[in-house]
Amino acid sequence: xxxxxxxLPEVRRSALRELLLSRRGLRLIEAHSGLSxxxxxxxxxxxxxxxxxGLWVSSLTSSAVQGLPDVEMYLVERRLDLLxxxxxxxHKPVVVDGDTGxxxxxxxxxxxxxxxxxxxxxxxEDKCHPKRNSLAxxxxxxxxxxxxxxxxxxxxxxxxxxxxxxxARLESLIAGNTxxxxxxxxxxxxxxxxxxxxxxxxxxxxxxxxxxxxxxxxLARHDGSRVPLICVPTTYNSVTAEELFRRGVQIVxxxxxxxRASHYAMVRVCESLLMHDRSTExxxxxxxxxxxxxxxxxxxxLSDEVENASTADRIRDHLSLxxxxxx
Length: 327
Description:
Blueprint: H1 9-21, E1 26-30, H2 34-42, E2 44-45, E3 50-51, E4 54-57, H3 59-64, H4 76-89, E5 94-97, H5 104-117, E6 121-125, H6 145-158, E7 165-170, H7 179-191, E8 196-199, H8 207-223, E9 229-231, H9 241-246, E10 251-254, H10 257-276, H11 289-295, H12 298-321
Parallel strand pairs: 1-4, 1-10, 4-5, 5-6, 6-7, 7-8, 8-9, 9-10
Antiparallel strand pairs: 2-3
């Protein structure tokens, strides 16, 4: 961690809500480690002035870096350790994938700990515990909307800050249900206190999301609701974030790409090292050591050491010039 990344929890926690109040579309990128958080936070197109607005801590990637399948097997405390690492490595607001939220006791504990860390929001999905990954070929069992709404209300009762948010993730389209089912669930969850609605889809085109967004906008216009809409275009990835923003989506999450990119590169490197029995062939897909050191603040540490040594010398010289104290 470098000091320039240090942000007080209360400052980080409020950052996402403040960005949402700007009414512009927000882009979040997945982070699964301190290093990925650093790189995601540094990413910027200077000529366009665009960068990622926040970090998404995915349950899929959090499980993967522990060598576990994405079925809610990880221990909450180990996940919280990872979140501390990510928060210490970036000044960006953080949104956490909370899976189903677990049982009521687990969810209350999770909400309390995330809020204390300075996380801006947690997303929970309306599937039965333990969940199965939404993009996998597995049966998807949805939770009863009333039961899930009660969990949202329970979480909101634990929250102590007006800045911490609970987003409800709709799995209707993932389970093969209708848009009407998704809209009905959205209304129920908003009434229970949800601060945002994430509509998920594994279609290869954005049309189901567009259709939901259009009707969701009408729903919001009818009842005055201003609960933001969120989506994760992993499978329908030909659509741009700008197109989604124009359809009423306020947050677009690139949910697993840094982990998938590192997985791909690591497999290629391992194969090449075994095939060629040396590493020169992989130099073109590996970052230079000096780049890695620089982006992790190594030069800053060396600069601080020089400055600290210079300060110590000045103090030592100053003390040596002082006249002896009278006794």
